[in-house]
UniProtKB/TrEMBL annotation:
GO terms for biological process: phosphorelay signal transduction system. This is Stage 0 sporulation protein A homolog. Residues 2-118 form the Response regulatory domain. CDD domains: REC_GlnL-like (cd17565). It comes from Acidaminobacter hydrogenoformans DSM 2784. PROSITE patterns: RESPONSE_REGULATORY (PS50110). The modification 4-aspartylphosphate is found at D53. Signal peptide: none annotated. May play the central regulatory role in sporulation. It may be an element of the effector pathway responsible for the activation of sporulation genes in response to nutritional stress. Spo0A may act in concert with spo0H (a sigma factor) to control the expression of some genes that are critical to the sporulation process. InterPro entries: CheY-like_superfamily (IPR011006), Sig_transdc_resp-reg_receiver (IPR001789), ST_Response_Regulator (IPR052048), YcbB (IPR013972). Keywords: Phosphoprotein. The lineage of its organism: Bacteria, Bacillati, Bacillota, Clostridia, Peptostreptococcales.
């Protein structure tokens, strides 16, 4: 990951650079000690992540983030500051900052935040590749669904990035069963529906829950990048709830320790409904 540092304290720049290099978090591609000097370089170098001080002479951190986001929305920003004002921190998040690191800079916190950004970028790139492959009509023959219902199930899995998850096969079996039987989750508990396929109902339920949670996390990442994201708007409230996705977005941003929750019965019924509508 390519990282750019904007900070008016040279000692902080050195410390952040050491953390990045020593912990193998990425490559420092540039530094600046004020926002005005950083603007042109960031647009030219196109780093994946910018660590930016909130309070700087001339162009402050929030203004820099806003100006860069207008031109390149893909750049991720982490704000660094000793300011504790909730209003100021709120403005930083509204400007497009993903996470916040408090001064004095702590190595463990910095590692954790940068790793989260790295994970988000990786997920975003993977989802883009998947969408690119299937939008171009180059779906591998081995992945060709057997009928229109499986086609729709796979389309949803691809959209929320859970095709390769272990529990995706369990979800597909449950959804197909409900479609064939003409029933819904109002007729079963999650344990009962899992019992239709295995004696190890708890393990199957855990696989389904983990997989559904991955899907919600992926949607939350999309929402952070673009709250009007087409996939989020199409599937978000049908499979989950916008409220829980918003909580997950806040968790990813580091604004809360609480994570979004998945209602499995709603998720499964949502899958069934989408298959009926688009069959």
């Amino acid at each position: 990951m390519r990282i750019y540092i904007v900070e008016d304290d040279s000692n902080v720049i050195k410390y952040l650079s050491h953390i990045i290099v020593d912990c193998d978090l990425g490559e420092v591609v540039g530094i600046a000690q004020n926002g005005a000097a950083a603007y042109d370089e960031i647009l030219m170098l196109k780093p994946d992540l910018v660590l930016v001080d909130l309070l700087m002479p001339g162009k402050d951190g929030i203004t820099l983030v806003q100006d860069i986001k207008k031109v390149n929305s893909r750049v991720q920003f982490v704000m660094i500051s000793q300011v504790s004002s909730k209003e100021m921190i709120g403005r930083a998040y509204q400007s497009g900052v993903e996470y916040y690191i408090s001064k004095p800079v702590n190595a463990i916190e910095t590692q954790s935040v940068i790793k989260k950004v790295k994970e988000k970028i990786s997920i975003y790139n993977t989802l883009n590749q998947i969408q690119s492959i299937f939008s171009s009509g180059t779906e591998p023959a081995a992945e060709t669904p057997r009928d229109s219902r499986e086609d729709e199930i796979r389309r949803i899995f691809q959209k929320i990035g859970i095709v390769g998850e272990v529990g995706s096969q369990d979800i597909q079996r449950v959804v197909l069963y409900l479609l064939d039987s003409g029933k819904g989750m109002a007729d079963f508990t999650v344990k009962e529906i899992c019992g239709k396929f295995t004696d190890q109902t708890k393990s199957m339920e855990q696989r389904i829950r983990r997989t559904a949670t991955v899907g919600m996390t992926n949607l939350a990442h999309m929402g952070i990048e673009d709250y009007m994201n087409e996939t989020l708007n199409e599937l978000g409230n049908g499979l989950y709830s916008y409220e829980q996705i918003k909580i997950e977005m806040d968790y990813i941003r580091g604004k809360t320790k609480k994570r979004g929750k998945v209602n499995l019965r709603k998720f499964i019924d949502g899958m069934v409904s989408f298959c009926k509508v688009n069959k």
